[in-house]
């Protein structure tokens, strides 16, 4: 797999003081967060939108163009079980994109039907397992070439719901995702390939995010329908339309993420890593130690950690613990200063909206209104603190 991400010089971010509401059993007032110099991040333009797309197999209810359109509610589905002798593939003609804008391409495909980022512990649904991303230098303007394809990145036995690669494609007019087998844990009646695929001009910027978290992240930070995904919400504020991946898992603690972080960073050529953990943690000292290691690993990988507060919940067993853990979050803001981007105040967002953002007052998880508020909060914080709105 290609992970040759060129280091991106990046100055960041202005953050206003964080403050949590003093509920009956809520947190203590936050210490002020130091002001930081704001600097906009260069755009990584989307280049796949509206380009000619083709596939060797397509279901009756989808088309290849559905993988690349503006609606994350649609996807390309092959309607066919891939095998090495009869694979599924989808190709895109980028020949009309100026050559400089397709010399280095940030590729991210995704299929979030399986809820969690890594589906290995359960069943996956129409997820590519053995796949390659290939390029071709033959002229565009017609059908995809039948030969001359060169493999740029590959995965075998994939169980992840997305894959990001930085592709060096100088001279290529075509890209193709070539799937030879389903994921090894494919559930019954799901033996087809279904994906969405975004391609960006990555020769000047690696404006891409990976949101690592627990079930709240899994519920809230996937690619949603038109105008309600993180990148679409960011684009309401600034010219940027960042690539992103949802890497949430039910029941994850900071320690669980720590065990996976090295592999997740190796599979991520982008810049920003959201660390939304703590709802399932219980001990502030252990949480502090694990989060410190997580932040250090992200920084050591040359990426930018982004840390939100732990979301509010009315579930009685969690409220007092989250209050103490959010004290740790605020201490980490001060400890890391400009090495850490202050993420959204998810506690305050959900506390303020608790009357409508939970189906029942004591629910642990927000409802769809709460999930949408989380996405908006992430986008608002990114616009203000990363993109220099």
Give the tally of β-strands: 14
Describe the sheet with the most strands.
Answer: 5 strands, antiparallel
- Proportion in helices: 10-25%
Q: How confident is the prediction overall: mean pLDDT?
A: 90
- Measured between the Cα atoms of the first and last residue, the distance is 35 Å
Structural class: alpha/beta
Hey, roughly how much beta strand do the residues contain?
15-25%
**Arrangement of strands in the largest sheet:** 1-3-8-5-6
- Radius of gyration, in angstroms, nearest whole number: 21 Å
| Helix-strand pattern | EEEEEEEEEEHHEHEHEHEHHH
Which regions have little confidence, pLDDT < 50, spanning 5+ residues? 1-38
Number of helices: 8
Shape: globular
Please give a handful of descriptors for the protein shown:
alpha/beta; 389 residues; five-stranded antiparallel β-sheet
Write the layout of secondary structure elements.
Elements (H helix, E strand, L loop, with lengths): L52 E3 L20 E2 L10 E6 L10 E7 L17 E9 L13 E6 L6 E7 L5 E9 L11 E8 L6 E6 L1 H6 L9 H5 L8 E6 L5 H13 L5 E5 L7 H17 L3 E4 L11 H18 L4 E2 L3 H7 L1 H4 L10 H18 L4
Parallel strand pairs: 10-11, 10-12, 12-13, 13-14
Antiparallel strand pairs: 1-3, 2-9, 3-8, 4-7, 4-9, 5-6, 5-8
Helix pairs in contact: 3-4, 4-5
Describe the structure.
By secondary structure, this protein is of the alpha/beta class. The protein has helices at residues 215-220, 230-234, 254-266, 284-300, 319-336, 346-352, 354-357, 368-385, and strands spanning 53-55, 76-77, 88-93, 104-110, 128-136, 150-155, 162-168, 174-182, 194-201, 208-213, 243-248, 272-276, 304-307, 341-342. The strands form three sheets. Strands 1-3-8-5-6 form a five-stranded antiparallel β-sheet, with no helix packed on it. Strands 11-10-12-13-14 form a five-stranded parallel β-sheet. Helix 4 runs parallel beside helix 5 (319-336). It is globular.
């Amino acid at each position: 797999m290609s992970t040759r991400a060129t280091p991106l010089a990046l100055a960041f971010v202005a953050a206003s003081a964080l403050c949590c509401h003093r509920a009956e059993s809520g947190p203590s007032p936050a210490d002020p967060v130091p002001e930081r110099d704001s600097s906009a991040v260069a755009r990584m333009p989307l280049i796949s939108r509206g380009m000619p797309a083709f596939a060797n197999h397509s279901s009756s209810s989808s088309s290849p163009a559905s993988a690349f359109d503006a609606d994350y509610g649609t996807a390309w589905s092959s309607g066919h079980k891939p095998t090495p002798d009869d694979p599924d593939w989808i190709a895109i003609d980028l020949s009309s994109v100026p050559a400089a804008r397709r010399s280095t391409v940030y590729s991210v495909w995704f299929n979030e039907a399986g809820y969690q980022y890594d589906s290995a512990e359960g069943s996956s649904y129409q997820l590519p397992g053995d796949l390659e991303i290939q390029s071709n230098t033959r002229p565009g303007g017609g059908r995809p070439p039948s030969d001359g394809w060169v493999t740029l990145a590959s995965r075998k036995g994939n169980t992840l719901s997305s894959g990001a690669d930085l592709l060096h494609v100088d001279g290529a007019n075509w890209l193709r995702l070539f799937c030879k087998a389903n994921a090894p844990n494919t559930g019954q009646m799901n033996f087809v390939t279904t994906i969405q695929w975004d391609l960006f001009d990555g020769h000047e910027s690696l404006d891409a995010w990976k949101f690592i978290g627990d079930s709240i992240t899994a519920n809230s930070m996937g690619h949603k329908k038109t105008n309600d995904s993180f990148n679409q919400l960011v684009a309401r504020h600034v010219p940027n339309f960042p690539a992103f991946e949802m890497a949430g898992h039910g029941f994850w603690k900071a320690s669980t993420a720590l065990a996976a972080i090295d592999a997740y960073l190796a599979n991520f050529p982008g810049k920003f890593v959201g660390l939304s953990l703590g709802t399932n943690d219980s001990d502030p000292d252990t949480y502090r130690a694990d989060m410190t290691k997580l932040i250090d690993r992200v920084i050591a990988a040359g990426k930018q950690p982004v840390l939100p507060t732990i979301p509010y919940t009315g579930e009685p067993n969690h409220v007092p613990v989250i209050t103490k853990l959010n004290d740790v979050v605020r201490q980490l803001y001060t400890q890391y200063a400009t090495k850490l981007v202050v993420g959204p105040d998810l506690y305050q967002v959900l506390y303020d909206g608790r009357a409508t953002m939970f189906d029942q007052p004591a629910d642990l998880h927000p409802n769809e209104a709460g999930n949408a508020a989380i996405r908006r909060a992430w986008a608002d914080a990114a616009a203000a603190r990363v993109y220099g709105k």
